[in-house]
Write a structure and sequence with these properties.
The complex is a heterodimer of chains A (242) and B (504).
Chain A lengths: L2 E3 L3 H5 L2 H12 L16 H6 L2 H14 L5 E4 L2 H13 L4 H13 E3 H8 L12 E4 L3 H6 L4 H8 L5 E3 L14 H4 L1 H18 L3 E4 L2 H13 L5 E4 H10 L2
Helix pairs in contact in A: 2-13, 5-6, 7-9, 11-12
Chain B lengths: L10 H9 L2 H25 L2 H17 L1 H14 L3 E5 L2 H14 L4 E4 L3 H6 L1 H7 L3 E4 L2 H9 L15 H12 L7 H18 L2 E4 L3 E3 L4 E6 L3 H5 L5 E7 L3 E2 L2 H16 L6 E5 L13 E7 L23 H5 L1 H6 L10 H11 L18 H5 L6 H14 L5 H14 L2 H14 L4 E2 L2 E2 L7 H4 L4 E2 L6 H14 L6 H15 L7
Classes of the chains: A alpha/beta (242), B alpha/beta (504).
C-alpha cells in the first residue's frame, strides 16, 4: 500500500513543519508516507487566473509524481480541490484525462484520510488552550470537509473550542486576488482577523496554510499575539505533550 | 463622479470608492447579514433544502434545454389570452417596441413596479426622452430614482443607503423635514404614489416567472405596488428576459418555495400575483391592453455553451449577493453593470459577446464558492468566474505583467529541479528583506500584500530538504498498522479499481 504525501508548494517552501507533523502523526498509525520529489505545485495560481496552459505544465508534475500511489494526502483542501479540477483541465487529452480521473479518486485532504480511511477520530492529544477554527472555503465547500476536523478537535483533551463568528466567510486570500485586488482583500482579512480577536481564542487553527498565512500575516501586522496553526501541527504537538 | 455613470472606470477604482464609504459598508453589511440569516432560518424550517434545490435545478435545466419549445408555447398561449407578445433581440429593439406603444397610447405617464430588465435597457431614460413621466413604485426603486442612481442589489435596490440618507432624500421631495422613522417615510411614499397610480396611462412590470402551459406571468412582491401597477392603468407592459419561463403551475410550486426563502427568508412574499391576459368582461379591474416584451440581449449566446448555459437558470433571488464576502465590502455599484454581486460578475461579461469590452470584474472574487452554496438552483458561479478569466487570457487579453509572471510560474513549476533552484535563489534574495523570519517591506510587488499584513519568509530548509533524515527517523519508529485498517485500505483500492467513483 503506497500512501504518498503531496506536501503542496506553500508548506514545502514556507511551512515545512506542517509536513513533518503530518508524517510523524500518521506514522503512529503505521502509515509510512512516501514523498515523490518530482512534485511541484498543483497549478492553482495559474488555473484560477485563467492561464490553463501554464496550469497544465505544473499539474503534469503532480499527475506523474503520484501515478503509482494508492493514496495521496495533502495538508490542504484547496490543493486537493484543485486536483478535482484536473479532469476539466485535461478534458482534451484522453491519456492525461484518465490519469487525472485516477488521481482525483485517490486524493485526500489530511483530515479526510485520518477520519474516513484510518478511522481515527481521537489521536489522544492534549492541548490546554482556547482555540478557534477557520473552515477554509475550498475544503469545506468544494470538498465538503466539515465534520472531520470537528470530530478530531472535539476529542482533544483540555482544549476549549470557541466558535469563530462568521466562520464560513472567506478570509480574503483568493491567491492572486490578494495582490490584484489588494484593498478588497485587505478589507476582508481585517474583518476575519477582527472575528478571531472577538472570539478571544489564543490559537487559530485551520486546514489550509494559504488562508492561515493570510490571517496570521494580518494579526502579526496588527501586533496581535495569536498563535496560528494547521490542525496537523496542533494534533501532533498535543500528542507529543500528552 | 456620479455613481450612475462609471463607464470607463476600473473595478479597482469603483471598489475603492465603496471601501472608503463607511455608511455604504455598514448599510450593506447590516442588510445582507439580515437576509442571509433569514434565508438560513427559512430553509432550516422548511427542511430537506438540498432536495428542494436539486428539484429547482432540474426544472431550470430542463426548461432551458427546451427553451425554444416552451417560449413558443408561452407566446401562443399568451396570444390566445389576448396579450400582444413581442420578441426583442437587442436592448435597442425592446426600447423601440416600448416607445412605440407609449407613443400610440399617447401616454404622459408610466408607473413601474420593480424590473431589473428595464434597468438593463435604461428604459426610464428612453421614456423620459420622449416626454413621458416615469415613476418607480417599489419603495427601494423610488428612493434610487430620487437619488438619480441605479440599483445596487437585485432585490434591495437601495441597500447601500441608511434611513438617515433616505430621510434626507424624501424630505427634499416632500418639501418638509421628515424624521428618519421607517413608518413615517414609507407613509409619505405611499401617499405620493397613490396619486401616480391613478394618473398613469401605462403600468410597467417585470416578470418573476412566465408559465408556458397557460401563457401566464407571475409576480412576487411585498408592497402591493405591482398589483396596483397591473390593475389600475389601462395599458400594461411586461418586460421579461427570455429565460424567465417555467413549463407549468406545478413547477411554480417548487420555485415559490425556493425564491422568497432565498431572497428575503420569507415563506412567501406578501403578494404573489398570477396574471393571464388583459381584463375580461367579467373582471372587476385590470388593463384593457396588455403587452409582453420578451428580451434576448445576449441571453441566447449562452445556449449550447456547456460552461455558461446554466447561467440562464438564475431566478434573480439575490442570495449570492447576500452570501458574497466581496459584495459585502464593495456593494453593488462597484460591479459596474446592471446586475451586481457574483451573478452580475458573470452575467455582465457573458451577455456581451465582445470579450475585448469585458472589464476585470471577474477578477474581483476569491472563488470561495459562497455564491454556489447560496444559490437555490445550484449555479456554479465560482467555476464560471474562472472560465471568464480563461476566455480573456486565451484571447490574448490577459494583464501583461501577469502573463509574464504566469509564463515564469510554468517554467519553474513544470520541473522539480528548476523549482528547487528557484527556492535556492529565493532564499538568497530574501536575505535583503527578511527580518526575524518576516518581510515587512512595501516595495514593489510586496506592497499590496504588506499594506495589510506581513509576509512570511521562505523556510531555511524546505520540507524536501529535510525529508531524507526525517524519513529515516520515522521508518525507525514506525508503528504496526492495524490489520482492520489495512483491510479497509485494500478494499477502498479494490472498489476504486472496479470502477467505483472514489471517496467523494
Amino acid at each position: 500500500m503506497k500512501v504518498s504525501m503531496f506536501i503542496t508548494c506553500i508548506s514545502d517552501a514556507v511551512y515545512p513543519r506542517i509536513g513533518e507533523a503530518m508524517a510523524r502523526l500518521l506514522a503512529k498509525y503505521g502509515v509510512a508516507l512516501h514523498f515523490p520529489t518530482i512534485q511541484t505545485c498543483c497549478g492553482q495560481p495559474a488555473f484560477n487566473s485563467g492561464y490553463w496552459e501554464e496550469a497544465r505544465a505544473s499539474a503534469k508534475t503532480i499527475l506523474e509524481a503520484f501515478e503509482d500511489s494508492d493514496f495521496v494526502i495533502a495538508p490542504s483542501g484547496s490543493c486537493i480541490g484543485m486536483i478535482h479540477h484536473y479532469p476539466k483541465l485535461f478534458e482534451d487529452d484522453p491519456i492525461l484525462l484518465a490519469k487525472a480521473e485516477g488521481l482525483r479518486k485517490k486524493s485526500y485532504e489530511f483530515t479526510q484520510f485520518l477520519v474516513n480511511v484510518l478511522g481515527v477520530t481521537d489521536v489522544g492529544a492534549t492541548f490546554p488552550h482556547k482555540v478557534t477554527y477557520h473552515p477554509s472555503c475550498h475544503g469545506s465547500r468544494i470538498l465538503g470537509v466539515k465534520e472531520e476536523p470537528m470530530m478530531l478537535m472535539r476529542n482533544v483533551k483540555g482544549m476549549e473550542l470557541i466558535p469563530l463568528p462568521f466562520a464560513e466567510d472567506c478570509c480574503g486570500f483568493g491567491g492572486t486576488f490578494a495582490v490584484k485586488m489588494s484593498d478588497i482583500s485587505g478589507a476582508m482579512v481585517n474583518e476575519k482577523a477582527d472575528h478571531v480577536l472577538e472570539s478571544e481564542a489564543e490559537v487559530l487553527v485551520g486546514l489550509d496554510m494559504a488562508c492561515l498565512m493570510n490571517i496570521a500575516g494580518n494579526l502579526r501586522y496588527r501586533n496581535k499575539p495569536i498563535r496560528v496553526m494547521h490542525l496537523a501541527e496542533l494534533l501532533f504537538e498535543g500528542v507529543e505533550h500528552a | 463622479m456620479s455613481k450612475t455613470d462609471m463607464k470607463g472606470t476600473t473595478v479597482k477604482g469603483r471598489a475603492e470608492l465603496a471601501l472608503n464609504d463607511d455608511f455604504l459598508r455598514k448599510a450593506v453589511k447590516f442588510t445582507t447579514e439580515r437576509l442571509r440569516d433569514g434565508k438560513r432560518k427559512a430553509s432550516d424550517d422548511l427542511g430537506n433544502w438540498e432536495e428542494w434545490r436539486e428539484r429547482g435545478r432540474q426544472i431550470r435545466l430542463h426548461t432551458i434545454a427546451h427553451l425554444d419549445y416552451y417560449l413558443n408555447q408561452f407566446a401562443n398561449q399568451a396570444r390566445l389570452n389576448g396579450v400582444h407578445v413581442h420578441f426583442a433581440d437587442t436592448a435597442e429593439d425592446a426600447v423601440k417596441i416600448t416607445l412605440a406603444i407609449a407613443e400610440r397610447k399617447q401616454a404622459l405617464s408610466v408607473v413601474k413596479s420593480k424590473s431589473m430588465v428595464t434597468e438593463e435597457l435604461h428604459l426610464n431614460q428612453a421614456l423620459e426622452s420622449i416626454g413621458v413621466d416615469v415613476v418607480e413604485s417599489d419603495l427601494g426603486e423610488y428612493i434610487i430614482q430620487l437619488a438619480g442612481e441605479t440599483p445596487s442589489h437585485i432585490i434591495i435596490p437601495a441597500i447601500h443607503k441608511n434611513r438617515y440618507q433616505i430621510a434626507d432624500l424624501l424630505s427634499k421631495e416632500a418639501g418638509e423635514t421628515l424624521p428618519p422613522d421607517t413608518a413615517i417615510l414609507a407613509g409619505f411614499v405611499r401617499k405620493k404614489l397613490r396619486e401616480k397610480f391613478l394618473e398613469a396611462d401605462i403600468g410597467m412590470t417585470g416578470c418573476n416567472f412566465a408559465i408556458a402551459e397557460t401563457g401566464s406571468m407571475v409576480l412576487f412582491e411585498n408592497e402591493g405596488n405591482a398589483r396596483m401597477v397591473s390593475t389600475v392603468p389601462s395599458t400594461q407592459i411586461t418586460l421579461m428576459g427570455m429565460e424567465r419561463i417555467i413549463p407549468s403551475w406545478s413547477d411554480l410550486e417548487v420555485m415559490a418555495t425556493l425564491l422568497p426563502r432565498s431572497a428575503t427568508g420569507q415563506k412567501l412574499t406578501v403578494y404573489m400575483s398570477g396574471i393571464t391576459g388583459p381584463r375580461r368582461q367579467e373582471d372587476g379591474d385590470g388593463p384593457d391592453e396588455m403587452h409582453i416584451i420578451i428580451l434576448d440581449n445576449g441571453r441566447s449566446l449562452q445556449l449550447g455553451d456547456p460552461e455558461f448555459q446554466e447561467l440562464l437558470n438564475c431566478i434573480r433571488c439575490g442570495a449570492c449577493l447576500n452570501a458574497c464576502p466581496v459584495y459585502r465590502h464593495i456593494g453593488g455599484h462597484a460591479y459596474g453593470g446592471t446586475y451586481s454581486g457574483p451573478i452580475g460578475a458573470v452575467l455582465t461579461p457573458a451577455l456581451n459577446k465582445n470579450i475585448d469590452q469585458w472589464d476585470d470584474i471577474a477578477s474581483a472574487s476569491t472563488l470561495c464558492g459562497a455564491c454556489y452554496e447560496a444559490c437555490p438552483v445550484k449555479i456554479p458561479l465560482h467555476d464560471m468566474l474562472i472560465y471568464l478569466r480563461r476566455r480573456k487570457v486565451e484571447r490574448g487579453l490577459g494583464d501583461k505583467m501577469e502573463s509574464i509572471g504566469m509564463r515564469g510560474f510554468a517554467a519553474i513549476m513544470s520541473n522539480s529541479k528548476r523549482y528547487e533552484n528557484a527556492l535556492k535563489v529565493g532564499k538568497l534574495a530574501q536575505r535583503l528583506v527578511v527580518k526575524d523570519g518576516e518581510i515587512t517591506s512595501k516595495l514593489g510587488p510586496l506592497k499590496g500584500w504588506n499594506n495589510y499584513r506581513v509576509a512570511p519568509s521562505l523556510a531555511k530548509q524546505s520540507f524536501r530538504d529535510q525529508w531524507g533524515t526525517m524519513e529515516e527517523e520515522i521508518r525507525h519508529g514506525l508503528q504496526e498498522i492495524d490489520p482492520l485498517v489495512s483491510n479497509r485500505m485494500e478494499e477502498i483500492v479494490r472498489n476504486r479499481e472496479a470502477g467505483g467513483k472514489g471517496h467523494d
